[in-house]
Amino acid sequence: MLRVAVLGAGRIGRIHAANVASSREARLVAVADPSGEAARELAARLSCEAAFDSLAVIERDDVDAVVIGTPTDTHVPLMLHAVRRGKAVLCEKPIDLDLAKADAAVEEIERLGGRVMIAFNRRFDPAARALRDAIDAGEIGEIRQVLITSRDPGLPPSGYLRHSGGIFRDMTIHDFDMARWLLGEEPVEVTATASRLVDAGLAEIGDFDTVMVQMRTASGRQCHINGCREAVYGYDQRFEIFGSAGMLLNENVRATTVRRWTRTQTDAQEPLLNFFLERYADAYRLELQAFLDAVQGGAPMPVTPRDGRQALRLADCALESALTGRAIKV
Amino acid sequence: MLRVAVLGAGRIGRIHAANVASSREARLVAVADPSGEAARELAARLSCEAAFDSLAVIERDDVDAVVIGTPTDTHVPLMLHAVRRGKAVLCEKPIDLDLAKADAAVEEIERLGGRVMIAFNRRFDPAARALRDAIDAGEIGEIRQVLITSRDPGLPPSGYLRHSGGIFRDMTIHDFDMARWLLGEEPVEVTATASRLVDAGLAEIGDFDTVMVQMRTASGRQCHINGCREAVYGYDQRFEIFGSAGMLLNENVRATTVRRWTRTQTDAQEPLLNFFLERYADAYRLELQAFLDAVQGGAPMPVTPRDGRQALRLADCALESALTGRAIKV
Amino acid sequence: MLRVAVLGAGRIGRIHAANVASSREARLVAVADPSGEAARELAARLSCEAAFDSLAVIERDDVDAVVIGTPTDTHVPLMLHAVRRGKAVLCEKPIDLDLAKADAAVEEIERLGGRVMIAFNRRFDPAARALRDAIDAGEIGEIRQVLITSRDPGLPPSGYLRHSGGIFRDMTIHDFDMARWLLGEEPVEVTATASRLVDAGLAEIGDFDTVMVQMRTASGRQCHINGCREAVYGYDQRFEIFGSAGMLLNENVRATTVRRWTRTQTDAQEPLLNFFLERYADAYRLELQAFLDAVQGGAPMPVTPRDGRQALRLADCALESALTGRAIKV
Amino acid sequence: MLRVAVLGAGRIGRIHAANVASSREARLVAVADPSGEAARELAARLSCEAAFDSLAVIERDDVDAVVIGTPTDTHVPLMLHAVRRGKAVLCEKPIDLDLAKADAAVEEIERLGGRVMIAFNRRFDPAARALRDAIDAGEIGEIRQVLITSRDPGLPPSGYLRHSGGIFRDMTIHDFDMARWLLGEEPVEVTATASRLVDAGLAEIGDFDTVMVQMRTASGRQCHINGCREAVYGYDQRFEIFGSAGMLLNENVRATTVRRWTRTQTDAQEPLLNFFLERYADAYRLELQAFLDAVQGGAPMPVTPRDGRQALRLADCALESALTGRAIKV
């Protein structure tokens, strides 16, 4: 039974904490948040201790592992603190918004032999898993093209956007990770274009809301990603993997399989699951499971700090390409 | 080049006439209708002769075959007149609303060796053909259950209904024919239930608007038919054939493959093709083709008068069952 | 926190016991099964007590409610024993295979004011719930026709079949309950046909494997049910509800939304969830939740013994109709 | 009744000739092909004259319009010859493989006031038309992203490839035209990547088989195109148009709406229509109709030589981008 503390009692920390609390293999020891109130409320609901100071919680003897769901700029110090105390870490993406700092952290973790997993939860979505399994089973032969559609239901609050690191590092970073994972090869070149079609006011903070990215690997495999901060029909998450022997599609997920026929629509499906907490609820749970399994079984981490660094690097390349109009070598 | 006359210049006669006119294997000689104006207008459009008297047209030496699309009560006399003059006949369903008269006509046609095809056009719909071919190829093994959904977009005018022979003989008769054709065995027992859920006023003419029929064959194959005179979402025509090795479904047909996603609907398909003239346009054309092929090649008629009689018999059984609440042996 | 015991440690008892164990509102006190081993194994896994004697468990002071998942012929005595001790009951269907005994039990429970819910779990399936909600919201106007498809993946073992009460009482009974629930009116007439198309050997025990049922309500609403003990493509569970203002369909559920395109198939969906334990896992969980809510909140039971009795009555009518070839008044 | 000659009796010429022959508004006067045999055979089948010399046919007094379906390098001289004789022209794409020559031809045609339509037939596909109509009706608000998938069932013969002008000018050129037409704005920047994943031997002729293209317009609208010379599951032609108020998808077209369920696949659809002659049969017919309507009604040509030139320019930009790894300004 692994003893786990969750750092951060915000939206994402609450998900992780609930998953730890209901896991048969872990015990939720404490949740920590500088906002004592958020921590206390969450701890009360999940019957664990509440804490204020994340560093102190990391140091507790009765904590074997920590899940980091704090603001991005605290990821690196908390991760390194935990690694130095020999604690296993599941850390939210991105490692850091600054590639140099991320690189330094990854190297330090590797030097110390730290047990760290980066929380690219979408790899653990059952449908994504089914895609990867079908590819591995050779169902579609050699991969030629990967297409990723990734549109959010609506713009986040401007306060969030201001510290998000920009659409590529905040939102598309998930797609960069999935692209690497599905392509089975590293992208060597990135071209991106970025527009402000939802909110022209984003120019103020130098951000964009609508993007397209094109990448290729050394062997010539190709990848397209499209993203938008707003899709009126809901949270749109689709994959298409085209290979020499076939194609795999992953359609959107809905609450039920009911279909409606009326005077104005025929065969309309249920609305999309509205956002990532609902759409990827299973993925968050299975991600934690994979983390616990790796920690307890001693197997390599399924998503490494280097994976986190690489996705960030692709995001940086995309931003540079969008700003300069040039194709960027990774 | 078969020389063909079309009898009847109404809705269905116009379809047949246009198909004859554009066929490479037939020449449209004349269209006949007691309403001289309807005949003249149609003939002018299709560059053929207009006539008033169907019997006279049948007798013309330059007419090899006739298509009968006149009111139901004229079907038998016109068919017999044509058969006695050695003309091939494609006759609209039903043969007659009265089973005894239909029986007598079928026997007379068979005695005379008449070349008559009954126009159950749905057998020639490409999707129905694909179903039949897949069954014949053994794709789903032995048939166990056939389900037919058959709903019209809206109630016909009351003038039509008054002379239609009732929903079973007028509308469901197509489904009885398809049931026989898809089951591959004769139904031996029919149970039906009939309601007035669209227009209670149909009680006045003893008709119904919403029906369900259940049938079984001697070997135990089962068939369900549902029908309704009104479906607000359009003309609903579906088949399901369930067998020991699989299942075949035939979905509705739409004008295009476009799908719509908006704030209020996701993945909604195009509206259904609105009614039988649009939905079965190909079937009418291929039906005529099959008729011409049979006449010119000397092969047996693909749909015989006996088929027409049998569908009528099932319709009568269904009506009797609905009125008496008893299962009826065919 | 309701203290619950589960009676029966077979396939269905294990589901209920696991759901009780993981519920936040209930505590699993004990599982009882005449096979001590089955009870011990399940109890060990779920950290509760194991028992041999169900009656004794019912009588325990620390048991507030019992879930009955024992063989059918014990349902009535266990239910009544529990009711007489003032315990709340969630009892698997059917109440009994004999309608007279079921009737007597229902009357006794009602006389005693017993708190009993019959486990028609499908009403709690999220898709079924969405159908019912859409109907209640008036989305499809007045209901005209309900179609239910209910096919199992394969024949159960002959030992099971011998004591199952026959396909109508064992398998179709779920569909009878759903028909009542979805129609919103009581069926007043039942016609059924039953065949042996999967295994002719079922004649030996007087059972069937392929059935169709047709029902109507007093106002003329119609219902069709089809069932088969074997569908090679998997566990097929679909609903269609056709009304004056539209139609609702409930498609099958799959493990993921992945679709496959290869040389031999295009746009093929994932296999169906194989059988009821997988397909209705959520429904079992939500059913227990509804039971706990009703018991603790004092609200009426969402599915009553009288509902259980009524489904059994329809099953009996269907069997009688299939055997006699007559329509049966309920 | 427009008198039309078809130049070229190859695959595409035969399509156009058959459509002219069966049109009610045109009369097929002659078909011309340097291979006298091909012309004679086609002419015999369609009951018109056969000719050897296209220039002579253009000059005939009884020819009002010509359809040019000859090898690409003859397009410009034949078009100009026809324009100078005052004949209307429907010319296959591309105008020429050389942009400078195409530019010169377009300018000459415009100077002469020539009536020339370039045969981008896909704009006339009913589904494409429905997309355009829905966009025009404001159904999806302002366009943000257009995605085009365009994969052929298999590599053409190497003889064809050698003179095709390369994948961008031969195959993707259709998609460039559709992109312009659907975006409603001119692309101002093109980035492309091209690989040889089907046949490495294409390096010999400097061609590619798998491509991705990314474009943006001045206002920031984005477009992605993917193409491949081989898709084992068939001819894959899809569009996705994402806008501020919704999304439109255009799925592939199939022969029928039948779906198959077996032990190994569930809900598999019919195979795709295998290649462009089948998939775009309606589009070819409607394209000719649009040409005839424009010629006879005096309206502007629905697809102009300048459209043809612009698509070629985008193809050239894509090739340059793929070869240099740079984004190209149009």
Description:
Chains A, B, C, D: InterPro entries: Gfo/Idh/MocA-like_OxRdtase_C, Gfo/Idh/MocA-like_OxRdtase_N, Myo_inos_IolG, NAD(P)-bd_dom_sf. Chains A, B, C, D: Belongs to the Gfo/Idh/MocA family. Chains A, B, C, D: One of its GO terms (molecular function) is inositol 2-dehydrogenase (NAD+) activity. The structure is a homotetramer of 330-residue chains. In chain A, helix 4 packs parallel to helix 5. Chain A has a seven-stranded mixed β-sheet. A six-stranded parallel β-sheet of chain A has the order 3-2-1-4-5-6, with helices on both faces. Chain A has a two-stranded antiparallel sheet with strand order 13-14. Chain A has two domains: 118 residues, Rossmann fold; 177 residues, Dihydrodipicolinate Reductase, domain 2 (2-Layer Sandwich), CATH 3.30.360. Chain A is 38% helix and 25% strand. Chain A is an alpha/beta fold and 330 residues long. In chain A, 56% of the residues are buried. The mean pLDDT of chain A is 96. Chains in contact: A-B, A-C, A-D, B-C, B-D, C-D. At the A-D interface, strand 7, strand 8, strand 9 and strand 10 of A face strand 7, strand 8, strand 9 and strand 10 of D.
Largest interface: A-D, 37 and 37 residues
Biggest β-sheet strands, sense, barrel of chain A: 7 strands, mixed
CATH homologous superfamily of the largest domain in chain A - what is it? Dihydrodipicolinate Reductase, domain 2
Strand composition percent of chain A = 25-35%
What is the CATH C-level name of the largest domain in chain A?
A: Alpha Beta
Number of strand elements of chain A = 15
Please give the radius of gyration of chain A in angstroms.
20 Å
Q: Any guess at the CATH architecture of the largest domain in chain A?
A: 2-Layer Sandwich
